Amino acid sequence: MKHDDALNDTALRQLAQRLGTRAAERLDVERTAEAVVTRLRQEPRGAGRVWAAFDSTWLRIAAAVVLVVGAGLLARPAGQPMPRDVAVLASPELNELSAPQLEDLLRTVAEPGGTRDAVAAQDVGLEDLSAPELRALLASLEG
Amino acid sequence: MSPAEPVAAVPTDAALIAAWQGGDEQAAAELVRRHARALARFLAGGGAPEAELDDLVQESFIRAFRALDRFRGQCRFRTWLLTIGGNVLKDAFRRVRRVRVVPLDEELRSADGDPHEHVVALEAERRLGDALGRLPRLQREVFLLRAQQGLEYEEIAAALGTTPGAARVHYHHAVKRLKESLQ
Q1: Contact residues for B42 (Cβ-Cβ < 8 A; gap 6+)
Q2: ipTM above 0.90, yes or no
């Protein structure tokens, strides 16, 4: 029985190795290479890098604020109303936030009615985004 | 003793990648020549219709060259390229309903040897292709990378962002299900 299985494995592997071989042999590799180079030439290399041109500091801040607000909402017991500060700061106009507003938000999340410990870090993805780190980020912006 | 003949140095993939990033188009062309057939086999094994194979190979290379800045050498360039090919194939399947065309007449005309044996071999490959198409994507890709491309589990795991143990489990699940389908 074991011997039969071994034979089957070998046969299966040989069959898999043949799969697609004829189609691949019919591929005109030289023509494909020319076509790829032509396309690379026609499509500028920077075309897909628009995001990289953004100020990465602001992107990091936006991501941090979204995570912090999300963590605050998760940590809050169901039915408890959202603090006014969080409701205001959850708006998408992140560029208009001042440093004091962001610090207010951090203070709000740091003291969510004593329920913060109920949310594990892996649940909200905050392993690397502690409040001191975010404060340091804000401080760097002020400087 | 005759002096050793000079051996032309074959540039590594890493050297070709660096040359392409420095603006050498011929380095990109050489990478395509070097890996296109393996990629085509992988895509065809994953269910790509032959009529679309050239387009899918091209698209895979284009995406790979565009993403080279993110390639950290965690696995070989070819392995990384094959996983990009898997994504391209997945996107292609989303766009069009999957139709497997077996150009039997063309296959038979191009066949050498015993036509009957050739038909039997084609039928076996068709059945394996159909069975592969019914596997979950990860199992199918691990199976092809291992059985068709001959890669080690460590290499597969690095390319797919998983562990060698998990890759081994996916492979064995795939083999079990393929055997059941082919019996």
Answers
A1: A20, B82, B85, B86, B144, B145, B148, B149
A2: no
